[in-house]
Design brief:
This protein is 35% helix and 33% strand. The protein has helices spanning 2-26, 43-50, 64-80, 133-141, 146-150, 153-170, 200-216, 218-229, 243-258, 333-342, 445-470, 475-482; strands at residues 32-41, 82-88, 91-97, 102-110, 116-121, 127-132, 178-184, 188-199, 264-272, 278-285, 294-303, 309-319, 349-360, 365-376, 379-390, 396-404, 411-420, 435-438. It has an 18-stranded mixed β-sheet, with helices on both faces. A hairpin with a 4-residue loop joins strand 3 and strand 4. Helix 7 packs antiparallel against helix 9 and helix 11 packs antiparallel against helix 12. The relative contact order is 0.14.
Length: 489
């Protein structure tokens, strides 16, 4: 029971601390922004997905009348819930509510001198969690951002230079493309083609070249140190604790793999356009053993005049053995892809990711859409996102949708973001008569016990009351689901 209580307290504190990530984003935003979230669920698609007949004409759920009613209540509740995020200099907050009433909230407010921030939430009434600026900085430094996911321009170019240099020195013919005129469906016309074999030696050589770049990347090593240093060491744990140990581990892995017999892994073909702004890379991966699948990976990369590259298409096709082993013939990958899409091939699988961007100058907006699809033996499962951004800085809107064996979205998370002035910010909660808890590396056992007591005796009861007021039609059933797992002090 004690461990479960601690997990609840840790969950609440972690959720609160996530708001510090918004602070990092807000530092570059001179004004405030409001982002509204809503959820939409297509009940016909849901019924079709759960129906044994698989048709929308007979949407009877194979779960019984009680389960059908329960699903309708949950769907109804989710469709009513809204989320609002306010972010800007010195203030970040999340409000979850319906048109009827507030469900829960959480605030993070910077002190005027910037020495610490204060977290308050309806889940911990009467408590103020003080987070020193140093703790926030450490947390923000390990958050994924555009820079540390894709690397700063200099670091990214260093990786590309290392790869290019290795190919020039070690892969015969990799820098001598053949002039062609080849039209690739949905990709475009390409005029240069380079082909070469990929073996263990090539992969390990590339790994060593990139490891050399990481040895010189002080910022990257500091990020690794922060990430690994935040995890407490366990008895008998031999995992690396810092960047130096990671480097040593990778060096040993490369050395051990290099001592093994060299093996042909596959073939790679690179197509390029005449202007060099687009490339199409096809990698065929052999099966290590006859009982294992073969794979084809295709990547379409589009660049611009500013030197920025964007992955526009990713396709991974997995060709499973025919029976117990593969035939000796190379697969016809176009036929495999066609049969998977048509539904006639249920043994193999495919993952596709499409990412497209465009500019609608007449409307002064930038359009961005992407689709991830897993093609399975029972049908496609997709996640799509779309975003429309105002070039004039008037905000953006978009959504994230889930498709399950249907051309219509089952669930969509919609959002709309826009700049606001200070007068539209929510009223801040009172800071008077609050019990203070300092959150740096953690909290003491006494503070943890107090937070758990507040959460269970005041926070959760208040949440239940809010649910009744904000979801009067669905609250009774939702609370009945919560009650078996609700903890008492």
């Amino acid at each position: 029971m004690i461990n479960r209580r601690k997990r609840i307290t840790a969950m609440v504190l972690s959720l609160a601390l996530v708001l510090t990530g918004l602070t990092a984003l807000a530092q570059s935003v001179p004004s405030y922004e409001q982002t509204d979230f809503t959820i939409s669920i297509d009940r016909d698609v849901l019924a079709n997905f759960l129906s044994p007949s698989g048709t929308q004409d007979q949407p009877s759920l194979p779960l019984g009348a009680d389960s059908e009613a329960a699903i309708k209540l949950i769907v109804g509740a989710l469709s009513k819930i809204r989320g609002t995020v306010f972010s800007g200099p010195g203030l970040n907050s999340i409000l979850i509510d319906t048109q009827e009433d507030l469900i829960a909230d959480i605030y993070l407010v910077d002190d005027q001198d910037g020495s610490q921030s204060t977290i308050t939430t309806s889940l911990l009434p009467g408590v103020a969690i003080r987070v020193p600026q140093e703790t926030m900085d450490n947390f923000i430094n390990v958050l994924p951002t555009v820079d540390n996911i894709f690397g700063k321009e200099g670091e990214f170019n260093a990786d590309l230079t290392a790869i290019d240099q290795y190919f020039r020195n070690n892969v015969p013919g990799s820098q001598q493309p053949v002039q062609v005129e080849e039209e690739i469906p949905d990709a475009g016309l390409f005029t240069r083609r380079t082909s070469f074999e990929v073996d263990n030696k090539l992969v390990l050589g590339l790994g060593s070249a990139l490891l050399d770049v990481f040895r010189q990347d002080r910022q990257g090593q500091e990020m690794v140190n922060l990430l690994l240093g935040r995890q407490p060491a366990q008895e008998g744990d031999t995992s690396p604790r810092n960047a130096s140990e990671v480097i040593a581990l990778l060096e040993k892995a490369i050395a051990d793999a290099g001592a093994q017999e060299n093996r042909l892994l596959g073939e790679q073909t690179i197509y390029e356009t005449e202007d060099g702004l687009a490339s199409y890379v096809v990698t065929d991966i052999n099966a290590k053993e006859a009982v294992l699948p073969r794979m084809r990976l295709s990547l379409l990369n589009r660049g611009d005049e500013n030197g920025f590259d964007r992955l526009s298409r990713f396709v991974l096709i997995v060709d499973s053995p025919d029976g117990e082993t593969h035939s000796q013939e190379k697969p016809d990958w176009d036929a495999v892809r066609h049969d998977i899409l048509s539904g006639t091939n249920k043994e193999d699988s495919m993952i596709t990711i499409y990412d497209e961007q465009s500019l609608a100058e007449s409307e002064q907006v930038s359009l961005h859409s992407s689709v991830f699809t897993l093609h399975t033996d029972i049908g496609p499962i997709s996640v799509s996102s779309d975003k429309t951004v105002s070039i004039a800085g008037r905000g953006e809107r978009g959504g994230l949708s889930l498709y399950l064996l249907s051309n219509e979205a089952l669930v969509t998370l919609n959002y709309a973001q826009a700049p606001i002035d200070e007068s539209r910010l929510p009223a801040l909660p009172s800071q008077e008569d609050l019990v203070e808890v300092i959150f740096s590396d953690g909290v003491s056992s006494q503070e943890d016990s107090h937070l758990t007591q507040v959460l269970l005796t005041r926070g959760l009861p208040a949440l239940l009351v809010n649910l009744v007021q904000s979801l009067p039609d669905e609250a009774e059933y939702i609370i009945s689901l919560m009650m078996p797992t609700t903890l008492t002090p």
